[in-house]
Specification:
Blueprint: H1 4-18, E1 23-29, E2 34-36, H2 39-45, E3 50-57, E4 60-67, E5 70-79, E6 84-90, E7 99-105, E8 109-115, E9 121-125, H3 127-132, H4 150-158, H5 164-169, H6 179-189, H7 202-221, E10 262-266, E11 269-273
Parallel strand pairs: 2-9
Antiparallel strand pairs: 1-7, 3-4, 4-5, 5-9, 6-8, 7-8, 10-11
Helix pairs in contact: 1-7, 4-7, 6-7
This protein binds a DNA duplex (12 and 12 nucleotides) through residues 1-3, 32, 59, 79-83, 98, 115-121, 134, 137, 160-162, 166, 169, 171, 178-179, 227-229, 267-270.
Length: 279
DNA sequence: ACCTACCTGGCC
DNA sequence: GGCCAGGTAGGT
């Protein structure tokens, strides 16, 4: 499932591929995945736009487009959802199943978006306008940015009485964490995902802050985790699934203390933790 | 602050 | 043949 490390990997790979390239045609744009504007409108608006930046906000991919040299302030925005996939391929390459958007580039290649489960989304417009229209939610702090200080995490956790896992999954607090990395972060910090935020000690909050950063950085170094569907721009798997300590390991022994890992449901999500070394 | 719907491939 | 996976929006 694409979370921050997977999206960051896609963005880093995509940036040099499309930088300076101009969209010359949109041979295919359909389905509910295209949220705004309507697919045929989006198909009419994209041609003529040149990619001048590719960046990430939380799990969102924002591709800034300029026109006739001047910046248009509009972006092609993609969220991968659960099974969304971006690829840059030859225009003659066969279309993968569930392809919802194809944008022909001026070098003869195509940027394509496919998504079997259609939890992903594609939008086009000025990010501020889309935000105001609530097509993009207001996102919290970037966990790998310099604003993500221990004090900032404290502020996020202090504002709620929910369980730790629910707070970490909330994109309005910290942007980019999902089910896999939240479980990994809690394990590394030695804190149970079921703990109520107000009950966390200063020491635990500091451990969580460090764990957020180290877990995400390690996952990015390994180009993300391929549990099931995730593939990068070139259809290659990430390798961080081999480094996961708790996700998907319920019933196996803890790699830190040897206790049997417990699987439960927290915040409506499958959750794995070590009952011995996570308190 | 929690619960359900959305959606489909893969598995029992 | 039915259930589960889960990021997010929307409803209660």
């Amino acid at each position: 499932m694409p979370e921050l490390p997977e999206v960051e990997t896609v963005v880093r790979d995509l940036r040099p591929e499309v930088a300076g390239r101009t969209i010359v045609a949109v041979p295919h744009a359909a389905s509910s995945v295209i949220r705004y504007p309507a697919p045929e409108v989006l198909a009419a608006l994209l041609p003529g736009g040149s990619f001048d930046q590719v960046r990430r906000q939380g799990k969102y991919i924002l591709c800034g487009l300029s026109r006739d040299g001047g910046p248009a302030g509009e972006s092609l925005i993609v969220h991968l959802g659960m099974t969304g996939h971006l690829e840059v391929c030859d225009a003659a390459a066969p279309e993968r199943p569930h392809t919802h958007l194809r944008a022909r580039l001026d070098d003869g290649r195509e940027l394509r978006f496919a998504d079997a489960r259609r939890f992903g989304r594609v939008m086009y417009g000025d990010p501020a306008t889309l935000s105001a229209a609530r097509l993009i939610p207001r996102l919290g702090v970037e966990p790998l940015g310099e604003e993500f200080t221990p004090a900032r995490l404290d502020a996020v956790l202090r504002g709620t009485t929910r369980m730790l896992k629910a707070a970490l999954l909330d994109q309005r607090g910290i942007a980019g964490l999902g089910n896999i990395y939240v479980d990994e972060i809690c394990h590394r910090a030695g804190v149970r995902p079921t703990r109520r935020c107000p009950r966390l000690t200063r020491r635990e909050r500091a451990a969580l802050h460090a764990a957020v950063i180290s877990v995400l950085q390690a996952a990015i170094r390994n180009r993300g985790s391929t549990i099931d569907d995730y593939r990068d721009l070139w259809n290659a798997k990430g390798s961080h699934q081999e480094e996961l300590r708790v996700y998907g390991r319920g019933g196996s022994s803890c790699m830190r203390c040897g206790e049997v890992l417990r699987r439960t449901v927290v915040a409506g999500r499958g959750t794995t933790y070590c009952p011995a070394c996570q308190r």
